[in-house]
Amino acid sequence: MEQCKIDFSSIPWEIPAVGVRFKAYESNGRQLRLVEFSDEFIENDWCTKGHIGYILEGKLEVNFDGNVVVFNTGDGLFIPAGEKDKHIGKVLTKTVKMIFVEDVYPDAV
Question: Contact, 89 vs 77, CB < 8 A?
């Protein structure tokens, strides 16, 4: 069924901030995003959005209000939405490539 196949090569990159770009496929209030962070990415504010994802390549540090967790290639992540799980990410390698499965948020990074 071709409508179930997502051809990321046909989707243009979006660049919402320095050091991050993504391609997104949206359907029925959900999205699948291919995201690439570079070591130039700086997250200035705490994120309270939920994220479900998989690290395709690289190493990412996520600070959960003082509790730091490092995610490596092959790791999955499941971050609940809300103030209790607020977080800030930091790229530890030249780039980090990820897949996110999310509810559609305006201005998601």
Answer: no
Locate 17 and state its tokens: 């901030």
Residue 19's Cβ-side half-sphere holds a number of Cα atoms within 13 Å equal to: 15
With 90 as the cut, is the pLDDT of residue 109 above it? no
As a whole number of angstroms, the distance between CA 13 and CA 4 comes to: 21
**Helix, strand, coil fractions of the chain, as percent rounded to 5:** 10, 55, 40
Task: For residue 98, count CB atoms less than 10 angstroms from its CB and return exposed for 0-12, middle for 13-18, buried for 19 or more.
Answer: buried
- Phi then psi for residue 80, to 5 deg, are -65, 150
Q: Which domains, from first to last, does the chain contain?
A: 15-103 (2.60.120.10)
- Identify the DSSP state of 91: E
- pLDDT tens digits, 8-30: 999 999 999 999 999 999 998 89
**Interatomic CA distance for residues 48 and 59, integer angstroms:** 21
pLDDT in tens, 67-92: 999 999 999 999 999 999 999 999 99
